[in-house]
Amino acid sequence: MTERTDFDRIFRLYYEKLYYFALQYIADEEECHDIVSEAYEDVWRNFAQIEAETARQYLYVSVRNKCIDYLRRQSRQLRYAEFVANTSSTYVSESRYLEQEDNERIISQVLDTLKPPTREILEACYLEEKKYREVAEEMKISISTVKKHMVKALKMIRELKKNIKNIT
Amino acid sequence: MSNEYKNIDDLMDLATELNQEEIQTMMDVRTVYRKRKMQPVDVEERLRRFHETHDNEKEKETHDNEKRKGAALRTYIYYALAAAAVFIGALFLLHKPAIDTQTEGTVFVADHEQSGISLTNEQGEQVMLSKATKQNSSISLEDFRKVFSNEENIERVTLNVPFGKSTDITLPDGSIVYLHPGSKLAFPTSFEGDKRVVMLDGEAYFKVTKDATRPFVVMTDETETTVLGTEFNVKTGTEARTEITLITGSVALRLNHRKPIIAGEDGQEMIILKPGQQAVHDAQNVDLRINEVDVQPYEFWRDGYLYYDNVELKDIMEAIGKNFNMTVEFRNTEAMHYKMRFITERNHGVDAAIDMMNRMKKVAVRKEGNKIVVD
Question: What does the pLDDT read at residue B3?
């Protein structure tokens, strides 16, 4: 049955990316699985008319909507919900979507070249998800130093990413 | 895994010192770290579970989906580069509900004060258009010019279509607008300038003539839709819900959150509608949702019919109420959710509609005075 094979293809193609996309905003893994699953449900129900390209755009917009809805329902996360609404990109454009894999690969390489203490600080904040206060206490530096390193690192990573892309 | 990211406040705090690309980099860095420490997703398992839960639903819908497969043609994506890209304001305006739900089974209440279709100028002078005998009428360019023959001064006029009536009107540029009962359209007696702008309250089907130098803009309380030459349907209504459906041609909609989106490297997010797609905005969602829909009902409307395919009876009966301006009451509230196929020619009147409904043998519909009752 072609329909089912095509749906499966769309499922396999985008599921993991959508899942990690949702994980950017929501820490609860099962919730993220549920959200992605619900987005696929809509595609499944209207399937006869959706092509892969349209499905991708729809899925991303749908998952982002659902993430924002979820965050809005958590009363302590309203500000974060608005933050997500204003800053998230949904890879609706195909070029942006295709770029994403490259992005992550390049970022991964750059992360490995970072020197201490920047590397430790970045890992503490984003790998271990610690708050600045915790990191500052552990490393015996001020919170503003932590932030300075973070900003510098992110700006640098972004620059490097751009340069690498221009060369390759 | 904990329920929340504890460092969100720090994240948002840092974001104030970053530009949009750097914020995206920040999110990407987190994702890269996250993937390093997490188990990979077992997609096959998730797919298996998905089918387990959803395969039964599918059987019921295959029949309907087979029908829809033939309907829409989507062979290419249009990027409306020449047209001004449009910002859809994410406003959460509350509309007055169109229905007075005194009893649970009442899906529409007739408006007894209204009169015929009318055209009003800026001074509020009303001119009754006397083609009010049929439910559906048509206002051609000549009809229009007979009323507003003064071509030196451009005026803004409003076409008011009450419940119980519908009409199409040809605008000064040749575009045709098919208005639903209970709708208003405001437009100038002549389109000057670099845009053709009209304002809609209610629902209408637009057939826009192509003019690459002057995009056609439909404004509603919540949205702004810009097109070149195309056919599409705009519906505004209750709960701040707006639906824009593309039948043919091209439309590019750009979403504007309450704060402006900062442009990313590839420009702003554009929602591109292809024929057969519908963008829906309502009070619960930040963005536009895009659905694939069957465009036939909209085309049938344009051609003078009421046509529904697999729609809940309450929506069909509400439409009948609006089209013939009669209160509709369900005595059998369970029937409100029956899904049905239905067609009737609007000009044949409410008796023909009721007769057709009865022939479906799912419910018994009759008139009680000036009310329609569904048993």
Answer: 67
